[in-house]
Q: What sequence folds into this?
C-alpha cells in the first residue's frame, strides 16, 4: 500500500507538471503579441504619417542646412561659415524611414483588397508624395535607390541598386503620368482619405495639379542634359486638362497651428544677416517682401541723432540720406570685404547705447515660436508662384505654350509675382510677423508690377523672371539652391541683380553616407564611382567639382547666360 | 486531454490523503535536540551555524546567541557546519542537549554551499565553480547595491561602478559577454524568486534611478552564492545564461524566547577629487572668425586675439558671458584684476580651483536594521525591518527605504513543512544627477564661483523664472543658470514598492523521497514623477509628468527529490521538477504639454495644451519548464552530477502559436577528490586535492513581441485644419528571417582545488570556454530597404578564461592570524563568426559612429571593440619609408588660419573595452576579538570613452589645454604678417597638408602646400603658427573633432575597503544585558593607487550598466570615499 501510494504521488506530480507544460502553450501566441499593435493597417493613418513626415524632420534641416548653408550658398542671407556637419541630409533618412515605407505599404494594402478598384485615387496620390520628396533627396544626393528600395519586408531584397538621376526622373515621370490619369478619372465609388489627407483633404484635382508642377520641376532639371525632354514634359503639362498649380488656393501647404520647427535655433551658432545683393534689389524695388524677409537695423531717427551727438560717424557704406537706411546688407563671403563685414558683429557706440547697423533675417518670419511666440510656421512646399515662373521661364526660352497653358511670358511673370507676394504675406501673417501688404494689397502689388525695375522690358526678360523665381524661393531653400545651380543666376557683375563676390568653395551636393558595413556597400560604391565621386571625400572642393548628373552641364555659380 | 485531466484530479485526491494521513506512520521516532554552538578560539557564541540532520534536508541555524533547536531521529546524526569552520558530526543517541564547539578551519573541505534551485551541497561534490560569500560580509560594506558589495571578492566577476549617484546602477559581468546583447549581467535569485538586473542606458532620460536590486536588504542575507559556470546555472533556464547570484535569506531558529538583533550604521561619502582642471585662464572666446556668436564688445582688431576682456560702454573690462553659446576658457590669465562680473558688479578675476567639488556635498546615510526571531519545535519565524535614509553627494539626491521581511517555517505535521516568506520594500529615490554633458565641462569657466552663483537669488531672473539674457533689463547675465535652476527648482522622483511572497511546502514522503511545491510572486510597482518649474517670466511654463508601471512575476514549481544509496559505495540522489513562470510589465505615463496653466502647481489637469498620455504592455512573457537531475557519489571521492532542463518560451512563439519555442539543455559535471583515492601514497604536505570538470548547454530566447511586428500609432498631427489626425506606421523598423530559433550556449570548464601545508595554503583554479551560437540578433540593413535591421540567427561568440583564487594563512601565532586571498581572473572574448561574411556587429546605434565612438563585436576580435568614422585621416605615401607616413592629414580653415587633423570618414578601430585581467587581494588580520580587513581590487586593461575629454579640450577647461597657450607654456611668439600683431599662442600642429591644399598669403596670393608637413610649410614661411585656441576648438568640436583621443585605457588599482571590527567581550555585554555587541568601522573606495585615465578622471564614471558600454557621456562624478560605523547588538 505504502509503495503504491508513493508511486501514485510521484506520478501525480509528474503528470501535473507535464500537463501544464504541454497544455498551456496554447496561449503563447497571444502572450507574445503586443496588444497595442494591429496587423492590418488602415491606409488613412499610414498616409497621414507619410504626409506629416514630409515636414516633421525639417527642424534639423532649417537649422543645420537651410539657415547655415543652402540659403548662404544661394546668397539669400549670410552668416558665419561652417563646414557641412554630420547633421545635414536628414531629408535622406526621412525619405527611407518615414515617408516611403508607408506609401509602399498603402499600395500593398490596397492591392490586397477585394474591391481595390475603389481605392485607385488613394493609391495614385501616394506616388505624388513619393516624387515630391524624392526630388528633394536626389537634388542634393544624386543617385539613390528607388526602383528597388523598400523591398526588405516583402521581397527580402536587402541590396537595392542606386538609380541614376536620369532613371529616377524617368521613373517618376511615368509614375506621375499614371497618377494623373488615375486621379483625373471619374470619382464614382472612389474611396478617399478624407481629412487624413492633411494637405488637400482628398481634393483629387489639386493632387493632379501638384503632380503637374512636379513634372515641371523635373522638366527644368532635365534642361542641362536633354532639352528635347524638357520640351516633351512641358508640352504634356501645357496640354493637360487640369494643369499645374497656378492658383493660391491650390498650393501644397503644410498648415499646422501648433507647428514651429526652428524656435530659438534661428540664431543657432550665429545670427543670419541680409546680403548686399538681395537687400539692394529689394530696396530698389520697394519690394513688399523686404520687411517680410528682413528686419530693420537699429538706425532709427533717434539713433542717428544720438550718433551725431557722440560724433560717431556712420560707416562709409551707409548713405545717411538713404530713406531706407534701416535695411543694410553686407558681403555674402565675409572675407571679401572685411571693412564692411566687421559691422556684422560690431555695433556703433553712442555713449552707453549700441546700434546694430546690419539687417538680420526676420526671425519671427522664420521662427514664429521663438521666445514664446504664438505664431505658426506655415510651409508651402509647392507654390503657385513657382509654377507661374516656370511657365514664364519656359515660354521666354521658346518652349511655347499648349492647349491649356496659353498667354505670354509676361502674363505668367506677373501672376507669379502677385502670388509670391500674397503667399509670403500670408506666411508672415500666420507667423504673427511683419507683413508687407496693407488692406490695399491689390493696388500695392499692381504698383510693384508697374515699376520699370520689375516690368519685363525686352532686354533682360529672362533675368527678370529668374530673379523673381529666386526671390520667391526664400522659404524653399532646396529649390533655391537647385535654382542657383541650374541657372547660374544671380549673375556676377550683372547690372540688374549682381551676385556678391564669394571665394569660399561651395559644395554643389552632399555625400551619401556609406551604408552599414556588410549591407549594401557594393551598390553604394558602384553608384559613387559611376557618378565620378571620390567616396567619403567630404571636402568642399571635391563636393564642388564632382557634380550631380543634372548639374553636370550647368554654369558655375554666378555664370548664368 | 480532458480524460487526462480527470485522471489527474483523482491522483490529486489520493495525494492529499497521502500527505494528510497515511504517511504519519512512515517515520522513525524523532527527538528534539537543543544546544549552543561556540567557537573554539574564543568561546563566543557562533551565529548562523548550519545544523543539519545528516542525509536529509532537515536543518536549522543557530541564533544570535548561538542556540539552536532541531527535531532529529533519535538514532540520527547532526552535522554542524559553517563557512570557515571545521564541520562536526555528532550522533544524537537520544540526547536532548548537544553543545558543540567548532574549530576554525581554512580548508573548508566540508563546506556546504547553496547551489541551483536552492539545493545545498557539499562543495567537494561539485564539478563546477561556486563561490560563496557570507551575507554578513556583504552587509558590512554598507553599500546600497548588493553588486558593489561583491566588488573584488570573487574571481571571474567583473564589477564597474557607475556615475548614477546614490541609487545608480553598478555593472556586473561574470566571465565576459556571452551574447551579443547589451545586458549580459547575471540574474539575482532570492530564495527562488528571480529578479532581473535591468540595464539603464540613458534611453529613459539622463537620470539613473537604479534597477530593482536596490530594494534588496543585505542584512537579511544568510549567504550569497555566485554560480559562474553554465553547469551551475543550467537549472535556471534561459535567464541564467550570464550566471546567477543566488541569495539565501535568514530563517528563524528554534530557541527559548525571542532573539532580537539590532544594527545601526552611520556613513558618509566624501567627494575628494575632480578631474584636473586648469586654473590659470578664465572664460573667453576662441576668436572672432569661424566660431559661434561672439560677444560684440571685443575690439574689431581682436579677431584672433584671445586672453582679453570685452569692454562695456563705460570702458570697463567685463568677463565674457558668451551668450547663446557654450563657454570657453580662452579668456585672460588670472591676475586678480578688477572686472565687471556677470551680474554687473565688480569682482576680482580669479580662479576657483574647487568650484567643481563645491557643486557636490558630503553624502550621509543611516541604515537601521532590527530583526526578531524565534521558534519552537513546530515553527520558526524571523521578522526584520530595515530602514535606510541617505543623501548622496549630488544635491537633493536622496534615498529612503523601508523594508519588511517575514520568514516563517511551520511543521504542519510530522512530514509536511511550510516555509513562508513575505517581503515588502518601499524605496523612494529623488533627483539622481543628470548624466548628460555637464556645465563644468561645457559652460562654467574656471572663474565661476559655484558657491555664489548657486544661490537662488543669483540664478533666478529678476522677473522670476530663469534669467533671460536677451532681456535688456536683466541685470544678471550669468551663464548656465539653468544648471542650478534644474537642480534646485525641479524634482525628479521614483517611488517603488516591491512585494515578494513565497510559499514552499516540503513533504517527506519516505526516507528517500521528498516532494516540494512552491509558489512565489514578486511585484514591483513604480511611480515616477517629474516636476519642473517654469523658466519663463513669473515661472510660467514648466512641466509635470506622472508615470506608473507594474512589473509582475509569478512562479510555480514542483520538485520531487530522491535520495537513495544504490550500493554501499554508490550513493544516488536526484530530482525531477517543473516550473511555470509569468512576467509582465505594463505602464502608463502622462504629462502636461505646453507648460502649466497655474505656474508651480504640479498636476496633470494643469496642462496648457491637451495632456499627452501613453500606456500599454511593455513586455510579457511566459515559460514552462521541466527538469531533472541525477547525482551519483562513489565512495565519497568521485561525484557525477547530471542535469537536464527543457523550456518552452512564449517569446519564441509566433502569433499563430507556431515557432521554435522549445529548447533544452543538459549538463554533466564530475568531481574527483584524488587525495582521497590516493590517500596512502600522497606526500604529507598535500592535504587535499580535487579535480573537476563540467560540460553544459544552455538555450536562450529573445525579447517578447519581437517575432510579431505590425502597425502602431504614433501620436497625432494638428495639420490640415480639421483637428488631430492619428499617425500610424510600422511598429518595428526591422524585419525577420523566418523560423527564428533559440540561442545555444555550450560551456566547458575544468578546475583544480589543492590545499597544502596542513591547509595553510590553498589554490582554486578554473579554466573555461563558452561558445554561444545561433543567437537571434538584429543585424543592420541599409535604410534604403525600408528597415534598418533584420532579425536572424547567427554568431559564435567565445569566452575563454582562467580564474585563480589563492588563499593562505601566512601568519598564525596564538590568537593572531592573517588570512589572505588573492584572486585573479582573465577572460578573453573572441567573436568567431557573425553572419555570413560580416565582420562587425554594432552594439549601439551605428549612426552614432558618424560623430562619436561606439562599441562593436568584431570577428577575430572581441565584443566591445570601439570604432569610429571620425578618426584622424593618416598620410600614407607610396614609399614605405616616407617619414610622413602615419602623420595626421591636416584640414585648413583660411578664415581662422588654423590647421587641425582631418577626419577620415572611414571606419576605424580605436579601442577595446575588455580588461586584460582583474584581481583582488583580500586580507583579514585577526587578534582575539579584533579583526581588520583590507581589500584591494584591480582592473588592468580595457578602454573607456571619455566624452568630457573631447568637450573639455574644445572649451580649454582642463590642464591639457595649457601647453602652447602662452609663451610660458611653450607657445610660439610670432608677429602675424596679416595684421602686424604679435601673438604668443602659436603651435605647429603635427601633420601633413592634403594634396592640393592652398594657403592664402598675406599678399593675397595662394600657395600650394599639399604634401608638406605643417612644420615644413612653417619653415618655408608659407604658414603662420596656428593659434592654440583655434586648434583646440576644432580638435574637440562637434563638426570637426577627430575621435582618436578621447578613449583611454582604464586600468586601476583601488584600495577598495579597510574595515575594523571588534567584538565586545561577553562579560561586558552581559553587564549591559546584551548577548552580543560588536562595532565595525568601514572605509570604502579609499583611494586609487593606480589610475591610467588622463587628468585623473574617475574610473567610476560609467554612465550605463549596459555590458557594451564603457563610457562617460559628460558627467564625471568626483572620486568619492565612504566611511561608516556600524554597531550590532543582540538582545
A:
Amino acid at each position: 500500500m505504502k509503495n503504491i501510494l508513493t508511486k501514485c504521488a510521484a506520478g501525480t506530480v509528474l503528470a501535473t507538471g507535464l500537463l501544464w507544460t504541454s497544455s498551456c502553450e496554447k496561449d503563447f501566441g497571444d502572450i507574445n503579441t503586443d496588444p497595442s499593435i494591429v496587423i492590418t493597417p488602415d491606409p488613412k493613418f499610414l498616409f497621414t504619417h507619410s504626409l506629416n513626415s514630409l515636414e516633421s524632420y525639417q527642424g534639423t534641416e532649417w537649422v543645420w542646412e537651410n539657415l547655415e548653408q543652402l540659403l548662404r550658398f544661394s546668397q539669400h542671407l549670410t552668416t558665419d561659415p561652417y563646414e557641412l556637419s554630420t547633421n545635414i541630409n536628414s531629408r535622406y533618412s526621412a525619405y527611407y524611414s518615414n515617408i516611403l515605407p508607408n506609401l509602399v505599404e498603402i499600395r500593398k494594402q490596397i492591392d490586397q483588397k477585394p474591391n481595390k478598384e475603389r481605392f485607385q485615387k488613394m493609391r495614385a496620390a501616394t506616388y505624388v508624395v513619393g516624387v515630391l520628396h524624392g526630388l528633394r533627396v536626389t537634388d542634393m544626393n544624386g543617385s539613390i535607390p528607388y526602383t528597388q528600395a523598400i523591398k526588405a519586408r516583402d521581397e527580402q531584397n536587402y541590396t537595392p541598386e542606386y538609380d541614376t538621376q536620369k532613371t529616377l526622373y524617368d521613373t517618376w515621370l511615368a509614375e506621375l503620368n499614371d497618377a494623373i490619369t488615375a486621379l483625373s478619372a471619374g470619382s464614382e465609388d472612389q474611396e478617399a482619405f478624407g481629412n487624413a489627407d492633411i494637405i488637400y483633404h482628398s481634393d483629387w484635382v489639386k493632387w493632379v495639379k501638384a503632380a503637374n508642377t512636379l513634372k515641371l520641376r523635373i522638366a527644368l532639371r532635365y534642361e542641362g542634359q536633354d532639352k528635347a525632354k524638357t520640351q516633351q514634359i512641358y508640352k504634356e503639362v501645357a496640354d493637360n486638362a487640369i494643369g499645374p498649380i497656378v492658383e493660391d488656393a491650390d498650393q501644397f501647404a503644410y498648415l499646422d497651428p501648433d507647428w514651429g520647427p526652428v524656435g530659438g535655433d534661428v540664431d543657432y551658432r550665429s545670427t543670419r544677416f541680409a546680403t548686399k545683393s538681395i537687400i539692394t534689389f529689394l530696396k530698389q524695388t520697394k519690394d513688399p517682401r523686404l520687411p517680410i524677409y528682413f528686419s530693420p537695423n537699429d538706425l532709427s531717427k533717434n539713433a542717428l541723432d544720438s550718433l551725431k551727438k557722440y560724433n560717431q560717424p556712420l560707416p562709409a557704406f551707409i548713405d545717411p540720406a538713404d530713406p531706407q537706411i534701416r535695411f543694410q546688407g553686407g558681403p555674402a563671403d565675409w572675407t571679401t570685404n572685411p571693412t564692411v563685414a566687421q559691422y556684422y558683429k560690431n555695433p556703433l557706440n553712442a555713449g552707453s547705447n549700441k546700434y546694430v547697423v546690419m539687417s538680420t533675417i526676420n526671425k519671427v518670419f522664420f521662427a514664429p515660436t521663438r521666445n514664446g511666440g504664438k505664431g505658426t510656421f506655415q510651409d508651402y512646399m509647392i507654390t503657385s508662384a513657382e509654377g507661374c515662373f516656370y511657365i514664364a521661364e519656359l515660354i521666354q526660352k521658346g518652349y511655347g505654350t499648349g492647349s491649356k497653358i496659353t498667354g505670354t511670358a509676361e502674363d505668367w511673370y506677373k501672376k507669379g509675382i502677385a502670388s509670391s507676394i500674397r503667399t509670403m504675406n500670408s506666411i508672415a501673417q500666420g507667423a504673427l510677423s511683419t507683413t508687407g501688404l496693407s488692406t490695399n494689397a491689390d493696388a500695392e502689388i499692381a504698383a510693384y508690377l508697374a515699376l520699370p525695375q520689375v516690368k519685363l522690358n525686352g532686354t533682360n526678360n529672362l533675368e527678370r523672371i529668374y530673379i523673381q523665381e529666386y526671390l520667391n524661393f526664400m522659404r524653399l531653400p532646396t529649390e533655391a539652391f537647385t535654382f542657383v545651380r541650374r541657372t547660374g543666376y544671380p549673375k556676377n557683375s550683372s547690372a540688374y541683380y549682381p551676385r556678391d563676390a564669394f571665394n569660399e568653395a561651395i559644395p554643389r551636393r552632399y555625400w551619401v553616407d556609406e551604408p552599414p558595413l556588410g549591407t549594401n556597400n557594393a551598390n553604394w560604391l558602384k553608384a559613387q564611382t559611376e557618378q565620378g565621386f571620390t567616396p567619403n571625400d567630404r571636402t568642399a572642393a571635391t563636393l564642388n567639382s564632382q557634380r550631380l548628373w543634372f548639374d553636370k552641364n550647368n554654369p558655375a555659380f554666378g555664370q548664368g547666360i | 486531454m480532458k480524460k487526462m485531466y480527470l485522471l489527474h484530479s483523482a491522483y490529486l485526491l489520493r495525494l492529499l490523503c497521502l500527505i494528510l494521513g497515511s504517511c504519519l506512520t512512515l517515520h522513525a521516532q524523532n527527538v528534539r535536540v537543543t544546544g549552543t554552538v561556540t567557537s573554539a578560539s574564543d568561546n563566543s557564541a557562533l551565529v548562523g551555524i548550519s545544523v543539519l540532520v545528516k542525509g536529509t534536508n532537515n536543518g536549522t541555524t543557530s541564533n544570535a546567541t548561538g542556540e539552536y533547536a532541531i527535531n532529529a531521529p533519535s538514532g540520527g546524526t547532526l552535522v554542524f557546519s559553517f563557512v570557515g569552520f571545521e564541520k562536526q558530526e555528532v550522533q544524537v543517541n537520544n540526547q536532548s542537549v548537544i553543545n558543540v564547539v567548532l574549530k576554525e578551519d581554512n580548508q573548508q573541505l566540508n563546506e556546504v554551499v547553496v547551489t541551483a534551485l536552492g539545493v545545498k551541497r557539499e562543495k567537494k561534490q561539485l564539478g563546477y565553480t561556486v563561490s560563496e560569500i557570507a551575507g554578513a560580509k556583504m552587509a558590512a560594506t554598507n553599500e546600497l547595491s548588493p553588486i558593489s558589495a561583491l566588488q573584488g571578492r570573487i574571481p571571474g566577476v567583473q564589477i564597474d561602478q557607475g556615475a548614477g549617484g546614490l541609487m545608480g546602477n553598478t555593472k556586473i559581468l561574470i566571465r565576459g559577454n556571452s551574447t551579443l546583447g547589451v545586458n549580459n549581467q547575471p540574474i539575482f535569485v532570492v530564495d527562488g524568486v528571480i529578479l532581473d538586473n535591468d540595464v539603464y542606458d540613458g534611453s529613459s532620460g539622463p537620470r539613473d534611478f537604479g534597477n530593482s536590486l536596490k530594494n534588496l536588504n543585505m542584512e537579511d542575507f544568510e549567504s550569497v552564492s555566485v554560480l559562474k559556470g553554465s553547469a551551475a546555472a543550467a537549472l535556471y533556464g534561459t535567464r541564467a545564461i550570464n550566471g546567477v547570484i543566488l541569495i539565501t535569506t535568514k530563517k528563524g531558529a528554534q530557541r527559548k524566547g525571542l532573539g532580537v538583533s539590532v544594527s545601526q550604521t552611520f556613513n558618509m561619502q566624501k567627494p575628494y577629487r575632480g578631474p584636473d582642471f586648469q586654473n590659470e585662464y578664465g572664460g573667453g572666446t576662441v576668436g572672432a572668425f569661424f566660431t559661434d556668436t561672439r560677444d560684440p564688445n571685443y575690439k574689431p582688431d581682436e579677431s584672433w586675439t584671445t586672453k582679453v576682456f570685452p569692454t562695456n560702454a563705460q570702458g570697463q573690462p567685463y568677463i565674457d558671458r558668451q551668450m547663446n553659446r557654450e563657454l570657453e576658457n580662452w579668456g585672460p590669465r588670472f591676475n586678480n584684476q578688477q572686472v565687471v562680473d556677470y551680474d554687473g558688479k565688480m569682482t576680482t578675476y580669479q580662479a576657483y580651483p574647487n568650484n567643481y567639488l563645491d557643486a557636490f556635498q558630503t553624502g550621509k546615510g543611516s541604515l537601521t536594521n532590527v530583526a526578531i526571531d524565534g521558534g519552537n519545535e513546530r515553527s520558526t519565524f524571523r521578522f526584520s525591518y530595515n530602514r535606510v535614509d541617505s543623501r548622496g553627494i549630488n544635491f537633493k539626491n536622496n534615498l529612503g527605504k523601508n523594508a519588511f521581511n517575514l520568514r516563517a517555517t511551520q511543521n504542519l505535521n510530522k512530514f509536511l513543512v511550510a516555509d513562508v516568506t513575505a517581503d515588502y520594500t518601499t524605496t523612494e529615490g529623488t533627483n539622481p544627477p543628470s548624466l548628460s554633458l555637464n556645465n563644468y565641462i561645457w559652460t562654467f569657466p574656471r572663474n565661476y564661483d559655484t558657491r555664489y552663483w548657486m544661490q537662488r537669488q543669483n540664478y533666478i531672473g529678476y522677473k522670476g523664472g530663469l534669467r533671460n539674457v536677451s532681456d535688456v533689463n536683466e541685470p544678471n547675465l550669468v551663464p548656465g543658470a539653468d544648471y542650478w535652476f534644474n537642480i534646485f527648482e525641479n524634482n525628479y522622483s521614483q517611488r517603488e514598492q516591491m512585494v515578494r511572497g513565497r510559499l514552499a511546502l516540503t513533504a517527506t514522503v519516505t526516507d528517500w523521497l521528498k516532494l516540494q511545491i512552491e509558489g512565489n510572486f514578486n511585484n514591483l510597482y513604480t511611480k515616477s514623477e517629474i516636476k519642473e518649474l517654469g523658466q519663463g517670466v513669473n515661472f510660467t511654463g514648466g512641466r509635470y509628468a506622472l508615470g506608473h508601471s507594474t512589473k509582475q512575476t509569478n512562479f510555480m514549481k514542483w520538485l520531487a527529490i530522491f535520495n537513495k544509496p544504490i550500493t554501499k559505495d554508490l550513493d544516488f540522489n536526484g530530482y525531477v521538477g517543473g516550473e511555470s513562470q509569468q512576467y509582465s510589465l505594463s505602464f502608463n505615463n502622462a504629462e502636461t504639454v505646453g507648460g502649466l496653466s497655474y505656474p508651480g502647481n504640479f498636476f496633470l489637469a494643469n496642462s496648457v495644451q491637451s495632456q499627452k498620455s501613453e500606456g500599454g504592455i511593455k513586455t510579457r512573457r511566459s515559460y514552462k519548464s521541466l527538469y531533472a537531475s541525477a547525482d551519483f557519489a562513489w565512495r565519497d571521492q568521485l561525484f557525477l552530477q547530471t542535469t537536464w532542463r527543457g523550456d518552452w518560451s512564449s517569446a519564441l512563439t509566433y502569433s499563430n502559436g507556431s515557432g521554435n519555442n522549445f529548447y533544452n539543455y543538459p549538463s554533466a559535471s564530475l568531481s574527483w577528490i584524488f587525495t582521497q583515492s590516493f590517500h596512502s601514497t600522497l606526500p604529507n604536505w598535500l592535504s587535499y586535492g580535487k579535480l573537476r570538470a563540467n560540460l553544459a548547454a544552455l538555450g536562450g530566447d529573445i525579447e517578447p513581441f519581437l517575432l510579431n511586428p505590425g502597425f502602431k500609432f504614433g501620436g497625432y498631427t494638428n495639420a490640415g485644419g480639421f483637428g488631430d489626425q492619428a499617425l500610424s506606421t510600422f511598429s518595428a523598423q526591422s524585419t525577420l528571417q523566418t523560423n527564428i530559433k533559440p540561442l545555444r550556449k555550450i560551456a566547458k570548464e575544468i578546475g583544480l582545488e589543492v590545499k597544502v601545508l596542513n591547509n595553510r595554503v590553498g589554490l582554486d583554479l578554473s579554466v573555461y570556454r563558452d561558445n554561444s551560437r545561433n543567437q537571434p540578433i538584429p543585424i543592420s540593413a541599409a535604410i534604403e530597404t525600408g528597415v534598418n535591421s533584420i532579425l536572424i540567427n547567427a554568431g559564435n561568440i567565445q569566452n575563454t578564461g582562467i580564474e585563480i583564487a589563492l588563499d593562505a594563512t601566512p601568519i598564525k601565532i596564538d590568537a593572531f592570524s592573517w588570512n589572505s586571498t588573492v584572486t585573479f581572473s582573465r577572460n578573453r572574448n573572441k567573436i568567431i563568426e557573425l553572419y555570413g561574411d560580416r565582420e562587425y556587429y554594432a552594439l549601439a546605434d551605428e549612426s552614432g559612429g558618424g560623430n562619436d565612438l561606439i562599441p562593436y563585436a568584431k570577428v577575430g576580435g572581441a565584443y566591445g571593440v570601439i570604432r569610429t568614422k571620425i578618426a584622424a585621416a593618416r598620410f600614407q605615401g607610396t614609399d614605405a619609408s616616407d617619414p610622413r607616413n602615419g602623420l595626421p592629414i591636416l584640414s585648413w580653415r583660411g578664415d581662422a588660419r588654423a590647421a587641425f587633423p582631418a577626419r577620415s570618414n572611414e571606419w576605424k578601430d580605436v579601442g577595446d573595452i575588455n580588461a586584460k585581467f582583474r584581481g583582488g587581494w583580500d586580507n583579514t588580520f585577526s587578534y582575539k576579538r579584533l579583526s581588520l580587513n583590507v581589500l584591494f581590487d584591480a582592473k588592468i586593461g580595457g578602454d573607456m570613452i571619455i566624452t568630457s575629454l573631447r568637450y573639455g579640450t574644445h572649451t580649454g577647461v582642463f590642464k591639457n589645454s595649457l601647453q602652447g597657450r602662452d609663451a610660458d607654456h611653450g607657445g610660439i611668439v610670432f608677429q602675424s604678417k596679416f595684421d602686424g600683431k604679435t601673438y604668443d599662442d602659436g603651435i605647429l600642429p603635427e601633420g601633413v597638408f592634403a594634396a592640393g591644399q592652398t594657403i592664402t598669403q598675406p599678399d593675397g596670393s595662394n600657395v600650394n602646400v599639399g604634401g608638406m608637413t605643417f612644420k615644413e610649410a612653417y619653415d618655408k614661411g608659407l604658414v603662420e603658427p596656428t593659434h592654440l585656441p583655434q586648434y583646440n576648438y576644432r580638435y574637440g568640436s562637434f563638426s570637426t573633432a577627430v575621435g582618436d583621443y578621447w578613449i583611454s585605457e582604464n586600468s586601476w588599482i583601488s584600495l577598495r575597503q579597510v574595515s575594523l571590527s571588534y567584538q565586545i567581550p561577553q562579560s561586558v555585554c552581559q553587564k549591559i544585558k546584551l548577548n552580543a555587541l560588536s562595532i565595525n568601522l568601514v572605509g570604502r573606495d579609499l583611494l586609487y593607487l593606480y589610475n591610467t585615465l588622463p587628468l585623473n578622471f574617475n574610473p567610476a564614471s560609467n554612465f550605463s550598466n549596459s555590458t557594451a558600454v564603457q563610457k562617460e557621456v559628460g558627467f564625471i562624478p568626483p572620486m568619492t570615499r565612504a566611511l561608516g560605523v556600524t554597531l550590532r547588538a543582540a538582545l
In short: The first helix of chain B runs from residue 2 to 20. Chain B touches chain A through 119 residues (CB under 8 Å). Confidence is low (pLDDT under 50) at residues 1-28 of chain B. The longest strand of chain B covers residues 607-634.
